[in-house]
Amino acid sequence: MQLEAIVNSNKSVKKAPLADATLNDPRWTAVKARSIEADGKFYYGVQTTGVYCRPSCAARPARPENVRFYGTREEAEQAGFRPCKRCRPDRPALAEQYATRVTQACRIIEGTENTPTLDVLARQVGMSTYHFHRVFKQVVGLTPKQYAAAQREKKIRDELGRGGSVTDAIFDAGYSSNNRFYEKSNKVLGMTPTRYRAGGADTRIRFAIGECSLGSILVAQSDRGICAILLGDDAEKLVRDLQDSFPHANLIGGDADFEQLVAQVVGFVEAPGVGLDLPLDVRGTSFQQRVWQALREIPVGQTVSYTDIARRIGSPRAVRAVAQACAVNRLAVAIPCHRVVRNDGALAGYRWGVERKRSLLEKEAGEKVRT
């Protein structure tokens, strides 16, 4: 018995460093949490079973001393581990499978004149109706119905931009009648179709310039809501930027009441966590709208990568297009493109300067941001 106790004691001494190495590895936290977000970033093998798993595997967690981490499936298999039959780490991750099916559904919606019903779309991508609707909204940020409406809106903007007949543009975009479109034209275009075709002539936009901790700030408002929040060091340049964004609009300097609205926006810039309880006039292409909606869902104090946003909107390969959508965003902070960083966590470009991006993130997170 004494010999057995000594042997067991020696085994415990040998296992202790292995357990400590696992417990001190940040990847162990992801394994314990069964993090879906960590899938594909690493794998872990369990020496007692000889299998390797995804971080999200639902199997009972192994003892820390028996766990080994690997960057790729190939590394795990070269070390002698075989894929787990429960989480199937040798197959595409579930999130990747969902993104592929949602992308397929997006292409179906974009390629049909009459949008298929939810049941038909779900069948075409091989999912149940309820599950498809939930996953589509999770990945894209819009329901299938909202996505289809956004596609129609893009099409009518394109048709009107070519200078064709308003009636032809309405029917070509898939609307069943003029009345049905005119009921929502202000929301879709920000103005009547005729005025939109004329380049937005006579559209009234009020604006004013204030100061905040990030420098000068220009706030502009159309009849629909706040249409621009611009940051910079040169007030005159901000006005020129506004003119370039709305070249045919009638720009009107704000009065004392409007300056109170500017003060409200400045307060939001200084304390983003309080939120901005003002209507926004968000104008852009269908793709840009999807990106901007995904940005607005990023919680205060958190960051995501451009790749993450591309996956969330169902276009995993459109990383550069996501970056471009961030670059043309006119609503600083309200559409928080400053919360998007590179894959390694470092700061990337920002329309209003990287230092302002850093300041905003530090203000939100209360900590220094890595360059």
Task: List its salient traits.
four-stranded mixed β-sheet; disordered C terminus; flat; alpha/beta
Structural class: alpha/beta
The coarse overall form would be flat
Q: List the strand order in the largest sheet.
A: 3-1-2-4
Give the uncertain stretches in residue-range form.
Answer: 1-11, 181-188, 367-371
Give the total of beta strands.
10
- The radius of gyration over CA amounts to 26 Å
Distance between the termini: 59 Å
The percentage of residues in β strands lies in 5-15%
Q: What's the main sheet like?
A: 4 strands, mixed
Helix content: 40-55%
The helix tally amounts to 17
User: What oligomeric state is this?
Assistant: single chain
Order of helices and strands: HHEEEHEHHHHHHHHEEEHEHHEHHEH
Please tell me the overall pLDDT: 79
